[in-house]
Amino acid sequence: MSISKKHTKILEAIFSDPIRANIHWNDIERLFIALGAECSEGRGSRLRVALNDVRAVFHRPHPQKEASKPTVKSVRRFLEESGVWQ
């Protein structure tokens, strides 16, 4: 699997320490798609994501565009469990 430089930078931002709170949610969604995840709309502002037999539900941030630190931490855990990041 090869992803673009932009997706690589987003992936590195997700796993950087300390956890960042300035990552745009749209970039995270695009990263999921680039990694081959199946994304579907849930109720309200929820997004269901499935990648490598791992499933998660995320809540899109609003009205801000950036994901909060707890959301980034959840995305990080999801990507680790799905084998994207070791």
Describe what you observe in this structure.
The protein is α+β, with helices and mostly antiparallel strands and 86 residues long. It has a single domain, classed as Metal Transport, Frataxin, Chain A. Helices cover 38% and strands 19% of the residues. It contains three helices and three strands; from the N terminus they run H-H-E-E-E-H. It has a three-stranded antiparallel β-sheet, with helices on one face. The model has no long low-confidence stretch (mean pLDDT 94).
What is the compact description of this entry?
The protein has 3 helices and 3 strands, in the order ααβββα. With 86 residues, the chain is of the alpha+beta class.
Give the secondary structure arrangement, pairings included:
Blueprint: H1 5-14, H2 25-34, E1 38-41, E2 46-51, E3 54-59, H3 69-81
Antiparallel strand pairs: 1-2, 2-3
SSE-based structural type: alpha+beta
Number of helices: 3
Work out the strand percent. 15-25%
Low-confidence stretches: none
Radius of gyration: 12 Å
**CATH fold name:** Metal Transport, Frataxin, Chain A
CATH class: Alpha Beta
Q: What does the average pLDDT come to?
A: 94
Assembly of the depicted chains: single chain
Order of helices and strands: HHEEEH
Question: Using DSSP, what is the number of strands?
Answer: 3
Helix content bin: 25-40%
Principal-axis shape: globular
Largest sheet: 3 strands, antiparallel
